[in-house]
Amino acid sequence: MKSRKLFLLLLFCLVFVPSALLAQMTKIKGRVTDGETGEGIPFAGVYFKDSKVGVYTDLDGYYSLETRDLSLKTLCVSILGYESAELDANAGNFAKLDFVLKPVASNLNAVVVKPDDHYLRSILHKISDNKHKNDPKHIDAYSSDVYTKMELDLTHPREQIKNKTLVRNFGFIFDYIDTSVVSGQPYLPFLISENVGKKYHSTDPEMDKELIEASRISGFNNNSNMLQFTGSMYLRVNFYDNYINAFNLDIPSPLCGHGTMYYNYFLVDSLQTDGRKTYVIRFHPGKNISSVAFDGEMQIDAQDYAMRKMHARLQKRANINWVRDLIIDVEHRKIGDSTWFYSREKSYADFSVTMNDSSKALSLLGNRELIYSNVVFGKDSFPDNKVMRHRSRVYMEQREQPRTEAFWDSLRPYELTTKERDIYAMVDSIKSVPMYQNIVSVLTTLFSGYFDTKYVGFGPYQQFFSFNDLEGFRMQFGARTTKDFSKKWRLMAYGAYGFRDKEFKGGGSVEYVFSRDPFRKLTFKAYHDAKQGGASKSHFSESSLFVSIFSKGDKQKRSMVNEFSLNYEHEHTPGFTSSFTVETKNVSSNENVPMVTPEGEWLSSVSSTSMSYSARFSFDESSVRGTYERSFVPSRKPIITVDLSYGLKGLTKRDFSYFRPEISLVLTPPIPPFGASTVRFNAGKIFGKVPYPFLKIHEGNGTYFLDRNAFTCMDFYEFASDTWVSLMYEHNFNGYFLGKIPFLKRLNWREALNVKAVYGTLSDRNNGGVDNEGHLVSENADPYIVFPLGMGELNKPYVEAGFGITNIFKLFRVDFNWRLTHRYKEVLGEKIKNDNFSVTIGFELQF
After folding, report:
1. Quick one: which of 669, 780, 789, 646 has its CA closest to 729?
2. Which pTM value belongs to this model?
3. Which of 295, 454, 561, 769 registers the highest number of CB atoms within 10 A of its CB?
4. Which residues pair with 661 in a beta bridge?
5. Are 470 and 498 in contact (CB under 8 A)?
6. Is 828 within 8 Å of 803 (Cβ atoms)?
7. Cis ω on the peptide bond leading into residue 115 (within 30° of 0)?
8. 678, exposed or middle or buried, with CB in 10 Å at 0-12, 13-18, 19+?
């Protein structure tokens, strides 16, 4: 019996222990210092003995490296002027190895070396001259297999889970803790994704597509919307571009044509790689650079001046929110006689609320790796099927059954570590803990505004209580169905009561989703509620407590509105979506929004029945497809929207006929290193005679909160037009100037400027402007109803400008705005100064 147990034990060790050992990684970080001065030694070579795996130390002597090859057991350090040293690498584990090097005594006479960077500058110029030839994106056509792995980790899990209840529910996760080779922080992997795909590229016609053949994410099913963002098409890094866009910031590339404006370069070594001479060049941000930059090294082929390797690390104390560290490693290889192509790309990011490296606060580590293989040049390998004809850049193969572990093992370029494999099982275990469900429920309520039960969600909580001039104190209660009720149908309803006007309000909607990809949905809405005319589409909910607190008192001018609408949204391609709407709206009059005919008759309301068509065009834009809605990932390419509305006369009492074309354009051009701009353009015209509630009432801001789509110093119902053009411009300098001021630099504040302008006219048939005595200001005017006192046309351009301090405590911004035109208004024959200055606050969550 004992011999049988011994045999089983030996069998277990022979089968499982070697595989566990092979599925580990050696992770090492440390510092190389001078034995006499204790100072860090820059540019020292740190490498595994008898291998090509190695790095050079940075300016302070620090290094970090890792390998999956457990046969490499000795780590060596060498640099001219010091004795070489080596230490045991502690293969398969994390180790912190510091080297103290002894200077080499020399009897040679001192040699004075004068700095001369002419040779290095010539290398940099040749790199720039050969960019087009060496950049793979300029290859005419190719296909390539791509393996992508992403991992997200939480640091210092033991410090976060000290409560006995948490330990009792989640204590098993401590068995999965690992250590970061970069920061040395203990971390807990909680998400891993893998996908295997085929990438297709062509310059004529211009095309980049990816077929994802297999994909999986721990904790998510294969139909999850998240899978589309795990391929190679997102978070792309190309150091041949002059600027690297990371976290919506443009970071100058070390290979950019004017890199000497941002970096100091050092030629530290030359190597023989694949029988070819290779330059090793280190780069560091210049001392007087306030923009974000990298610190690292690159290996350049000495014949083609192509990039072989790039190791770039975000400079310390860079003015980027929430990012404590960022490292990007890229490798290219030569295929054939002349073509350089992608080989591998790795990125590491440390997201934290604190920039203190020694802090044990919770932070998020992100790791991503791409490996390219089986490259074929030309279009012969392109499939002639639905993949190439598909409208989206990313196409996912649909499978009824998930891929097996044997399938993944056969396609991975290397074996996952034991802890990486265990993430899938660990996440499933966490999701089965009841306390986890409670935490998810609280977070979902916080961000969505609804408290969800299985079939019904109640909310939004921020609208339960509010107050305004028309309704006084207002109470509201709403509910909507959840995706467990139906993934096709969603029902929503709410009811409210105002204690001043003593009137019940309410509304609801019915949504039916025909398809999520492409997105196609039918929506019916109906409501009877108090609404603010002349508010922008991005205006916060008028019935929320937040708007009530930050409103400008008597600036609100609400009226009761009855509206019924039927809308169909149809996505034709990822960059083209159209919608068709049939709507009837009735707007009631009150003392703030009076409706009086030129003859003096008081109307109780005006109505409109209309049909409208809207088309939205975007370029290189991605979207997140939820169960019932679709949101767009910001893009720097133009977004154009065309709206056409036609009023139908004779269907309801006092309705009218009109035609209203309108066009909008949004641009966000980067202007590195001076930040980025946002341009919003809008123009339109109304053909026909309409009451003023259906004119273009230019968007005012009745609150002290930032609204980028409204005129900050303009009141509601102040100006109206039937022909108009507007331009709103904002530029964020991202701390370019404030980053140069010693005291303010520590605060990481950023600066922004904005200018908003609009010009419009009114035809006589729609000009209802009146003077202080109630007479029409235009002799030939023939409007349906006259304007409220204080409302008029833009007889000259309206312009306002302001500047803002952003990134206050990484969350807030304060803007100071001045009205430059229309600074006075005439009341009873006297000129009275308008409110020409306004301060607004805003909430911004940005990098």
Report:
1. 669
2. 0.79
3. 769
4. 644
5. yes
6. no
7. no
8. middle
